[in-house]
Amino acid sequence: MKTGHKVAAYGLALALVFGGAWAAGAAVGPSGGASAPDAAGAMNHGEHKAEPAKVPPGLSVSDNGYTLQLHDNESLGFHISGPDGKPVTKFAVEHEKRLHLIVVRRDGSNFRHVHPQMTPDGMWSVPLTLTEAGSYRVFADFKPEDGPKTTLGAEVQVAGDYRPRTHADSRTFTVDGYEVTLGGELTAGSASTVTVAIGKDGKPVTDLQNYLGAKGHLVALRAADLAYLHVHPEDSAEVKFAVEVPTAGRYRLFLDFQHEGKVRTAEFTLSTVGSPTPAAPQTHEEGEGHGH
Ligand SMILES: [Cu+2]
């Protein structure tokens, strides 16, 4: 596993992102808490509550004592090392899975949300073929049985002729004949409510199936750095989310929904509205801003 570590460390130098609590579940956990671990030594006040994170989740390969160790192999393999340096084997189930893996290219394209399998010794893998060239961010979203909810990110490179795409703001997306529309606005510095309407053949789809225990799952990434935002489903009857938007700017949102037995993904690009809020105070912790 040392080997894997080296490889991972090399690949990561650029990126690391991530964050958050992927959908609802995080509930109360100290998810935002200790985001910038090794660097800054930030959290030296011994407070582990939901204080505002200075850095959103998902931006680091290591957080809360846990490290994402990508393996250098064909299928996407990895393990999570714990505070004791050993592979973690006990994970809490969240949204029906022990670990959620999000893969997205740095330009915000080619989003994938998959659920790897783990061997008893803590080695995870998932058959995932990345065919288009580019630099990809891999986010592992999990909660160790005896640790906080954590989102780690590392980079995977796919060689070839990389043609990055740009994404203009867009709140509608069509996939397999489903027209998906986002409602609501993102406002920096607050939890913004986003609603989802899904139609097919001009009629609203009213019988969405549960997928991972909810009517839909939304992943929100800050376009500039792929910070992984906290998203909480707000209501089980309606497809509605609270998205914690830390800063003004553009965001990529990816909705997984299930209808008639198949999971599909719709993607959107939204920019924040209103006056940009100033950056969170760097020297004082006043508990305002994007905390809960
Ligand atoms: Cu998942």
Note the topology.
Blueprint: H1 2-12, E1 18-19, E2 58-59, E3 62-63, E4 66-70, E5 76-81, E6 99-105, E7 112-114, E8 117-118, E9 124-126, E10 134-142, E11 150-158, E12 172-175, E13 178-183, E14 190-200, E15 203-204, E16 217-222, E17 231-235, E18 240-245, E19 250-259, E20 262-271
Antiparallel strand pairs: 1-2, 3-4, 4-5, 5-9, 6-7, 6-10, 8-9, 10-11, 12-13, 13-14, 14-15, 14-18, 16-19, 17-18, 19-20
The protein binds copper (II) ion.
Tell me the helix content: under 10%
CATH topology of the largest domain: Immunoglobulin-like
User: Roughly how many Å apart are the termini?
Assistant: 37 Å
Highest CATH level, the class of the largest domain: Mainly Beta
State the CATH architecture of the largest domain.
Answer: Sandwich
Oligomeric state of shown chains: single chain
Computed over alpha carbons, the radius of gyration is 18 Å
Q: Structural class, judged by helices and strands?
A: mainly beta
Count of the domains: 2
DSSP summary: helix tally:
1
Shape by Cα distribution: globular
How big a fraction of the residues is strand?
35-45%
- Unreliably modeled segments: 1-48, 280-292
Largest sheet: 6 strands, antiparallel
Bound small molecules, by name, code or SMILES, are:
copper (II) ion
The overall average pLDDT, rounded, is 81
The H/E string reads: HEEEEEEEEEEEEEEEEEEEE
Total number of beta strands: 20
Question: How would you describe this protein?
Answer:
Helices cover 4% and strands 38% of the residues. Strands 12, 13, 14, 15, 17 and 18 form a six-stranded antiparallel beta sheet that branches. A five-stranded antiparallel beta sheet has the order 3-4-5-9-8. The chain has two domains: 5-37 and 51-158, Sandwich (Immunoglobulin-like), CATH 2.60.40.1220; 172-271, Immunoglobulin-like. The protein is built from one helix and 20 strands. The protein starts with a helix and ends in a 21-residue tail after the last strand. The chain is mainly beta and 292 residues long. The protein is globular, with a radius of gyration of 18 Å. 40% of the residues are buried. Copper (II) ion binds next to loops.
